[in-house]
Amino acid sequence: ISAKSNYNIEKPYVMLLSKLVGDPNIQLVQQPAPLPPEIVMESSLQAQIENDVRELDNLPLPMGESDIPF
Fold first, then answer.
1. pTM as predicted
2. Any stretches that span the bilayer, and where are they (predicted)?
């Protein structure tokens, strides 16, 4: 077993499961990754975000420390 490279990391669990269940042919299978949740956004909110991004793209960047308001 190599914890660093995750090589044969499942072997002790398979052995323990086979002893507990009484089935020497038990195998672990990899579960597929779930799909990410679908984002539902109203078109008005999306338009507002796009307008905000356009406005922020047109703002000048501060040139030095004296240009940064505190």
1. 0.41
2. none
Q: Which residue has the tokens 């089935």?
A: 23
Cα 24 to Cα 15: distance, rounded to the nearest angstrom: 8
Name which of 30, 31, 29, 27 is nearest 14 in CA terms: 27
User: Please, are residues 9 and 3 in contact by the beta-carbon 8 Å criterion?
Assistant: yes
The SS3 call for residue 64 is: coil
How far is Cα 7 from Cα 11, in angstroms, rounded to an integer? Answer: 9
- DSSP secondary structure string, 8-56? TTTHHHHHHHHHHHT-TT----PPPPPPPPPP---HHHHHHHHHHHHHH
* 4-15 residue pLDDT tens: 777 888 888 999
For 46, phi and psi rounded to 5 degrees?
A: -65, -40
